[in-house]
């Protein structure tokens, strides 16, 4: 008697599909870098331990707070502020990884042909960026959680548990909001990169809403960050609200993900269509690098979102004239340079062609570096000119803003080769950005330890990382199997 095969439970199918996604990324990365899976695992673990150690070191160096040293009203406001900071960082991290993660993959298309529920496909695509957002949130907000525990007079373990409840429930909910906005905009025939930018702006507004509520002095204890502050202070009602928020948000995510339609495939970009290809070999390679990069939806979305952030930053300066904004002017333009991390991954499948036709396996190294640096600089110049024109920075300081962003560009080039972007592997995008950010942060920290001018230190750091980029480019493998 023949038995009828039934579909596996949704939870087991989602776990298997997620494990398959991780396994495919590991194989692709190890094949590209020529290392073993164990080496890759050890490297990722070492990076995670280093980030955790840095967060713990900062947390232990913070001054201890308590009712005997700080008035109770100030402690209450500090609890609300730190809880809102946890929310804001978690939301911003989710928006970042949702923005740069490919919206479709061959694995998701394959799952649609199998007898698995729609929610399995949605969860499989959502888990990698959400895990990366959770790790980034835990690393960045460690000191804030310690301050929240001190201001509440509660053990750090309980406050960490409360923060995990908040983040675990609300990260998927924010990812669902992002997907709904993207689908709504694409339903109005908006190009994908504009839809991604609109969803990112919406998600960032949700992430920053607690801070705005704190500034308006609105007393709403049912809000998630207020529930976190109450739970940290030992309030039973705060714990109940936190659990309700976590369970309710996860339920809404699963229900919504199961009913959302599949996102339509992005229409091919026609940007720079109609321009002739330059005749020389070097110019033609540079043109190829430029066209491939600017037509990538994730790169275009990152550039548009950064441009919106720059305009908002300059508008804030124009209205408020806060002097502390001048300290952040260099940081605002860094995403233009970090976005170049995608460049290598987009053209990697074609590198074997120059190897076999021209016998020059590194023919792409210099054109890619020149195009990405020139493009990031051109995108930065209008904002820098506007900042100088409005008095945010002196005109003679404008070149230093670009110079201080050079380590970010060089770090992006190194990370793009070490952890290449792959449209089929959601993990690759987040890890490449995390690697580039870590390299950039390390370069900035080392530069500040040296008693040298900022621009000169940035140039030295950029040159050092560019040398690493060339060295890593020589070590990677480019073979026809990447096609």
UniProtKB/TrEMBL annotation:
<feature type="transmembrane region" description="Helical">
    <location>
        <begin position="82"/>
        <end position="101"/>
    </location>
</feature>
<feature type="transmembrane region" description="Helical">
    <location>
        <begin position="401"/>
        <end position="420"/>
    </location>
</feature>
<feature type="transmembrane region" description="Helical">
    <location>
        <begin position="299"/>
        <end position="318"/>
    </location>
</feature>
<feature type="transmembrane region" description="Helical">
    <location>
        <begin position="40"/>
        <end position="62"/>
    </location>
</feature>
<feature type="transmembrane region" description="Helical">
    <location>
        <begin position="113"/>
        <end position="136"/>
    </location>
</feature>
<feature type="transmembrane region" description="Helical">
    <location>
        <begin position="236"/>
        <end position="260"/>
    </location>
</feature>
<keyword id="KW-0472">Membrane</keyword>
<feature type="transmembrane region" description="Helical">
    <location>
        <begin position="452"/>
        <end position="472"/>
    </location>
</feature>
<keyword id="KW-0812">Transmembrane</keyword>
<feature type="transmembrane region" description="Helical">
    <location>
        <begin position="156"/>
        <end position="183"/>
    </location>
</feature>
<protein>
    <recommendedName>
        <fullName>ABC-2 type transport system permease protein</fullName>
    </recommendedName>
</protein>
<feature type="transmembrane region" description="Helical">
    <location>
        <begin position="324"/>
        <end position="341"/>
    </location>
</feature>
<keyword id="KW-1133">Transmembrane helix</keyword>
<feature type="transmembrane region" description="Helical">
    <location>
        <begin position="427"/>
        <end position="446"/>
    </location>
</feature>
């Amino acid at each position: 008697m023949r038995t009828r095969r039934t579909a596996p439970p949704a939870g087991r199918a989602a776990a298997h599909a997620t494990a398959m996604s991780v396994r495919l990324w590991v194989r692709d990365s190890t094949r590209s870098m020529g290392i073993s899976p164990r080496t890759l695992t050890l490297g990722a673990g070492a990076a995670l331990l280093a980030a955790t150690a840095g967060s713990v070191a900062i947390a232990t160096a913070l001054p201890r707070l308590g009712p005997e040293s700080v008035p109770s009203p100030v402690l209450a406001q500090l609890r609300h502020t730190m809880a809102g900071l946890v929310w804001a960082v978690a939301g911003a991290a989710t928006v970042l990884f949702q923005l740069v993660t490919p919206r479709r993959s061959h694995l998701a298309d394959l799952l649609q042909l199998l007898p698995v529920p729609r929610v399995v496909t949605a969860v499989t695509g959502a888990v990698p960026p959400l895990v990366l957002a959770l790790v980034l949130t835990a690393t960045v907000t460690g000191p804030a959680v310690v301050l929240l525990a001190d201001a509440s007079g509660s053990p750090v373990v309980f406050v960490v548990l409360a923060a995990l409840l908040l983040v675990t429930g609300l990260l998927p909910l924010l990812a669902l909001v992002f997907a709904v906005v993207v689908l709504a905009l694409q339903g109005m025939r908006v190009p994908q990169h504009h839809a991604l930018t609109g969803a990112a702006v919406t998600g960032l507004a949700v992430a920053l809403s607690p801070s705005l509520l704190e500034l308006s002095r609105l007393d709403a204890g049912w809000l998630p960050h207020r529930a976190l502050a109450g739970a940290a202070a030992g309030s039973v009602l705060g714990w109940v609200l936190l659990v309700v928020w976590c369970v309710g948000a996860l339920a809404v995510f699963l229900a919504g993900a199961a009913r959302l339609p599949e996102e339509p495939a992005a229409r091919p970009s026609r940007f720079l269509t109609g321009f002739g290809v330059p005749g020389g070999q070097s110019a033609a390679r540079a043109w190829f690098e430029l066209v491939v990069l600017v037509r990538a939806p994730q790169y275009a979305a990152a550039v548009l979102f950064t441009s919106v952030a720059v305009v908002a930053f300059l508008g804030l300066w124009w209205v408020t004239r806060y002097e502390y904004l001048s300290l952040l002017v260099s940081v605002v333009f860094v995403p233009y340079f970090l976005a170049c991390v995608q460049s290598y991954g987009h053209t990697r499948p074609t590198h074997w062609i120059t190897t076999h036709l021209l016998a020059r396996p590194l023919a792409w190294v210099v054109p890619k570096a020149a195009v990405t640096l020139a493009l990031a600089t051109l995108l930065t110049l209008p904002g820098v000119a506007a900042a100088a024109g409005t008095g945010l920075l002196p005109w003679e300081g404008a070149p230093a803003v670009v110079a201080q962003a050079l380590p970010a560009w060089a770090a992006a080039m190194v990370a793009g080769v070490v952890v290449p972007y792959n449209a089929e592997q959601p993990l690759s995008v987040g890890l490449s950005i995390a690697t580039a950010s870590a390299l950039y942060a390390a370069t900035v920290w080392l530069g500040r330890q040296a008693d040298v001018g900022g621009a000169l230190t940035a140039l030295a750091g950029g040159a050092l990382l560019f040398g690493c980029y060339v060295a890593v480019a020589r070590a990677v493998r480019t073979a026809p199997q990447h096609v």
